[in-house]
Amino acid sequence: MTTKLKTDVLKNFINGEWVDGDALTAVFNPATREKITDVPLSDAETLNNAVKAAKEAQKDWALVPAPQRAEVLYRVGYLMKERKERLSELLTMENGKVIEEARGEVQEGIDMAFYMAGEGRRLFGQTTPAELKDKFAMSQRVPVGVVGIITPWNFPIAIATWKSFPAIVAGNAVVWKPATETPIMAYELVKIFEEAGLPKGIMNVVFGSGGTVGDSMVHHDDIRVISFTGSNDTGRNIAAECGRQLKKVSLEMGGKNAVIVMEDADIDLAVEGILWSAFGTSGQRCTACSRVIVHEKVKDALEEKLLESMKHLTIGNGLKDGIKVGPIINQAGLDKIKRYIEIGKEEGAKLLAGGEELTGNDYNDGYYFAPTLFTDAASNMRIAQEEIFGPVVSLIPVQSFEEAIEVNNSVTYGLSSSIFTNDVNRVFQAQRDLDTGIVYVNAGTTGAEIHLPFGGTKGTGNGHRDSGVQALDVFTEWKAVYVDYSGKLQRAQIDVE
Questions:
Q1: In whole angstroms, what is the distance from residue 157 CA to residue 347 CA?
Q2: Residues 203, 164: Cα–Cα separation, whole Å
Q3: Which of 286, 289, 303, 387 is catalytic?
């Protein structure tokens, strides 16, 4: 790899200026544990300065016609496309995901730029017949004002584009707190925004901890929307505080996603889908498959083929050719996975493969965990109910299609689900009955496309969606407009004959 970061210390970006931080924390490559850069741990005053700049800049930005606002996103998309390989290599360096996955994530951002730029010529409202003569009625979207976005480390550029691009094209200003583990994508994306001609103050980045910067964002009176992706506990706390302030909040908080394999499924195809969904990104996706609900008639065959295929997974530094599974993000992530392995054993699930941290010459410098397969898990076990966020999947045998649906829906999350079957009747029943925001048929649980809404039910979120045209609902308010050209006072329903 020839790509290198061009600075040893990152800075905040406020009102079009690069601003030093006081305290710093180091950023490490999870594949090698080598230090990449330092990132600020900003204080509440720094956050307040960013909000002040955003609030002032948004007043003029809201008056720019939406098609002109969209032109900035088109330029952002083209610049991202030109720099795709550099961005992908830097993403792998800070996050650890293998290079082909990093390229896919950057492509999501490119796609989102062009998609949301197109919304600049739509942002549709509605016209509707009025109740009274000589009266016109319509609705329109209007910006909310200052938007706060809080993004996680596992998709450091894609999720940021899901949130910031619709906010910007809708006429808002953004204050963004990226994860301190993966700040480089924020630094690079802000430079692209700057080059694309986004006015000062419309995109502001404040690096820092959730406890300081994130908490200050949630409590700030001038931030009228919080869009958060992260843990369930943190999301619940954010929702409670935003509810107290009557502040809009959009939450995406993970999943406990399952692949259902029925007795009539293409087993080889199911194995491919499970491998990619469970072990891609080392299982560190909110849509990762961590449960396989398999009909007992094909359980043994699926187990055998999964075990054989897992032997061929290549594990290591994601920048190296041919690597399919990269490292875990950090030591805390490793420790959490190891705790769940012990929980699974104690609960009585049978460990068939993996279950250990990888050490030795190829792994000593990074945070690596072996792809892991449990079998004979019960649906009420903790390893089948709680999000592990690692390369761990549990097989849960069932006796019928109806039981499979019931087991899938038995968790507190509702993000993504998948079914492998060749029965068209089951396909339509499954897409109706699976209680998740995303359903795949004869594919794994990952692979969402940016023009469809992303999000889930139950403990996954609070009803809003990232991505798709539905993302605009988070960052706009609806305004109803009535124009009475009758020349007299008309009193709506009172004067209807």
A1: 38
A2: 8
A3: 286
CA distance 367 to 329: 7
Task: Give the position of tokens 């030109």.
Answer: 82
Token pair 């409590």: residue: 219
**Helix axis angle, 66-82 relative to 184-196, nearest 10°?**
130
Q: Which domains does the chain have, with CATH numbers?
A: 12-253 (3.40.605.10), 257-441 (3.40.309.10)
Respond yes or no: is residue 71 known to be catalytic.
no
Catalytic-residue membership of 242: no
Q: Which of 89, 181, 252, 303 is catalytic?
A: 252
Phi and psi of 218, rounded to 5°?
Answer: -65, -35
End-to-end CA distance of the chain: 76
Name the DSSP class of 451. T
Q: What angle do CA 230, 83, 38 make, to 5 degrees?
A: 50
Backbone angles phi, psi at 410, to 5 degrees: -85, -5
Beta bridge partners of 258: 291, 417
Do residues 249 and 239 lie in contact, with contact meaning Cβ atoms separated by under 8 Å? yes
Give whole-number Cα distances, 47 to 140, 161, 194, 216, 491, in Å: 31, 21, 20, 7, 47
Question: In a structure prediction context, what are the per-residue pLDDT tens digits for the chain, which is 497 residues long?
Answer: 557 787 889 999 999 999 998 899 999 999 999 999 999 999 999 999 999 999 999 999 999 999 999 999 999 999 999 999 999 999 999 999 999 999 999 999 999 999 999 999 999 999 999 999 999 999 999 999 999 999 999 999 999 999 999 999 999 999 999 999 999 999 999 999 999 999 999 999 999 999 999 999 999 999 999 999 999 999 999 999 999 999 999 999 989 999 999 999 999 999 999 999 999 999 999 999 999 999 999 999 999 999 999 999 999 999 998 999 999 999 999 999 999 999 999 999 999 999 999 998 889 889 999 999 999 999 999 999 999 999 999 999 999 999 999 999 999 999 999 999 999 999 999 999 999 999 999 999 999 999 999 999 999 999 999 999 999 999 999 999 999 999 999 998 888 77
Contact (Cβ atoms closer than 8 angstroms) between residue 96 and residue 329: yes
Identity of the amino acid at 492: A
Q: What span, in angstroms and rounded, lies between the C-alpha atoms of 98 and 280?
A: 9
The torsion angle over the Cα atoms of residues 358, 359, 362 and 365, rounded to 10 degrees, is 100
For the entire predicted model, the pTM comes to 0.96
Non-local CB neighbours of 45 within 8 Å, separated by 6+ positions: none
**How far is residue 371's CA from residue 378's CA, in Å, rounded to a whole number?**
20
The DSSP call for residue 360 is: S
Q: Is-contact 160 152, C-beta < 8 A?
A: no
Tokens of 450: 């940016």
Q: Are 150 and 230 in contact (CB under 8 A)?
A: yes
> What are 30's two structure tokens?
């999870």
CA distance 280 to 274: 9
